[in-house]
Design a protein that fits this description.
Layout (H helix, E strand, L loop, with lengths): L1 H24 L5 E12 L22 E15 L3 E12 L3 E14 L5 E13 L1 H5 L14 E15 L2 E10 L4 E10 L1
Antiparallel strand pairs: 1-2, 1-8, 2-3, 3-4, 4-5, 5-6, 6-7, 7-8
Length: about 190
């Protein structure tokens, strides 16, 4: 599955580079957007046959979703009249089961006559978990057990950006390896 994700990312990058070169050869100026975002990330932890409602695990409190707060930076290159291709990076701090998350993705979409952008994206996202919050033991110290709680996998999603002069309002819905669901909203500034 990872080979498919890596191959997809390489293919998207191969498509984006000629588009960027074409845009620059036509004096198309790249559009840079930097901003802040907030969201909710449901990790979709698979607890298997564990049934916390049957009384056996009354003290076990599994928390698998948390708020995320952070920022993003994107660069889009025009491709033809209404199409664009670009790249984006993001970094967030989290609450609950998420200490932090960060990643990069390629974007491909179209711009409406009013300037709104609708796009699909694909990339790679890393999530650093707070194991103590996941299992409901706040004093749990991962370093005591030499645990590496950062996991990464491919990200796919869709988004929309609405322009208000030099300000952009945006919303994204993503999944990491079709195991999690992540929704974010944000405000950005165009340069």
């Amino acid at each position: 599955m990872r080979k498919i994700a890596i191959t997809t990312l390489v293919a998207m990058g191969a498509m984006a580079l000629p588009a960027a070169a074409h845009a620059q050869s036509n004096d198309g100026q790249p559009e840079i957007t930097v901003g802040a975002s907030v969201g909710l990330h449901d990790l979709g932890l698979d607890l298997g046959d564990l049934d916390a409602d049957d009384g056996e695990f009354d003290d076990l409190n599994i928390d698998d979703s948390g708020e995320i707060y952070g920022g993003f930076a994107a660069v889009d290159f025009p491709v033809g009249e209404n199409l664009f291709a670009g790249v984006e990076g993001n970094a967030h701090f989290g609450s609950g089961p998420i200490d932090a998350e960060y990643g990069a993705s390629a974007r491909l979409g179209f711009r409406t006559e009013g300037g709104a952008k609708i796009y699909a994206r694909g990339g790679y996202q890393w999530v650093d978990l707070d194991a103590g919050n996941v299992i409901g033991v706040p004093d749990f110290d991962e370093s005591d057990f030499d645990l590496d709680t950062t996991e990464g996998d491919y990200l796919v999603g869709a988004g929309v950006e609405l322009p208000l002069d030099t300000v952009v309002l945006r919303a994204n819905v993503d999944t990491i390896a079709f195991d999690t669901l992540r929704g974010t909203v944000g405000v950005g500034f165009k340069f």
